[in-house]
Design goal:
- There is one protein chain.
- The chain has about 290 residues and is α/β, with parallel strands linked by helices.
- The protein has one domain: Rossmann fold (3-Layer(aba) Sandwich), CATH 3.40.50.
- It has an 8-stranded mixed beta sheet with strand order 3-2-1-4-5-6-7-8, with helices on both faces.
- Helix 1 runs parallel beside helix 2, helix 1 crosses helix 8 and helix 3 packs parallel to helix 4.
- The protein is globular.
- The protein starts with 6 loop residues before the first strand and ends in an 18-residue tail after the last helix.
Length: about 290
């Protein structure tokens, strides 16, 4: 699958998943603008792209990213909003600063970069791709991640909304929900036996959807390509050997009561509802 002639911006591409996306896009033939607060120059040199240093969030940074792509390569075709930070704490210990930084980077950064891309793509009139990056935490919730889970849930909601708004312009918008072996994953006690390994057991790759960051990059290449032109407004998960499609929120049960509801009637009705699961849940592993 080739992307020759396409121009892509990847935020947060100085390392980890973002670097894997930039490398895969470049290997497929795309010209890449590599953004990050650190490491952008190294990655850009490695992929034959252009570096853009700076933290996402502000409109100025987003517009500068698009301007860099147009100045260097003449156009923009793909925006990948990968940049992010973590400040994990339980609710009662999370500070305003912890919350604001994560929301500023993930949620506002996605918004401003996508908005700047949408303006340019509509002006060009030849369609395009916006690929936002979610997380299982945003799909299910996760302990200690009030800020991150909320931001990532919002990012997927962006994709559904923007897919409607940009459809007439031929711009698709999809969310990637990646799972990969990163510096953060290494700190999870469950995965301690995997630290230092070059390969991951089959059950880890398939049941936990966990492998190197490069396992997630082909999905970004696909979504950036013409082959995905009919796919929009979707949340697709990838990691290890596993590719998945996430459902959109929907009513799973309902009850009707002529004339409306009382609190007591609600209590009776809710007893018949099957409670929905919450929190990221992973199958047990035996890594001994």
């Amino acid at each position: 699958m080739r992307l020759d002639g396409k121009v892509a911006v990847v935020t947060g591409a100085g390392r980890g998943l973002g670097r894997a996306y930039a490398e895969a896009l470049a290997a497929a033939g795309a010209s890449v603008v590599v953004n990050d607060v650190a490491g952008a120059e190294e990655v850009a040199a490695a992929v034959g792209g252009v570096a853009h240093s700076g933290a996402v969030g502000s409109a100025e940074t987003a517009e500068s990213l698009v301007e860099t792509a147009v100045s260097a390569f003449g156009r923009l075709d793909v925006m990948v909003t990968n940049a992010g930070v973590l400040r994990d704490k339980v609710l009662w210990k999370m500070t305003d600063e912890d919350f604001d930084l994560v929301v500023e980077t993930h949620l506002r950064g996605t918004f401003t970069c996508a908005r700047a891309a949408a303006v340019r793509l509509r002006e060009q009139g030849s369609g395009g791709r916006i690929i936002v990056v979610g997380s299982p935490a945003g799909q299910y919730g996760n302990f200690g991640q009030t800020n991150y889970a909320a931001a990532k849930a919002g990012v997927v909601a962006f994709a559904r909304t923007w897919a409607m708004e940009l459809g007439r312009a031929g711009v698709t918008v999809n969310a990637v929900v990646p799972t990969a072996w990163t510096a953060m994953t290494e700190t999870i006690p469950l995965y301690a036996p995997l630290v230092g390994r070059d390969e991951f057991p089959r059950e880890v790759r398939q049941e936990h959807a966990l492998g190197p960051a490069s396992d997630c990059a082909p999905l970004v290449v696909y979504l950036a390509s013409e082959a995905s032109s009919g796919v929009t407004g979707q949340a697709l998960g990838i990691g290890g050997d596993r590719l998945s499609l996430y459902s959109h929120p929907a009513e799973v049960a309902f009850s009707l009561r002529e004339g409306g509801w009382t609190a007591d009637a609600i209590a009776d009705a809710v007893r018949s509802f099957e409670p929905q699961p919450f929190g990221v849940r992973l199958p047990e592993l035996d890594l001994s």
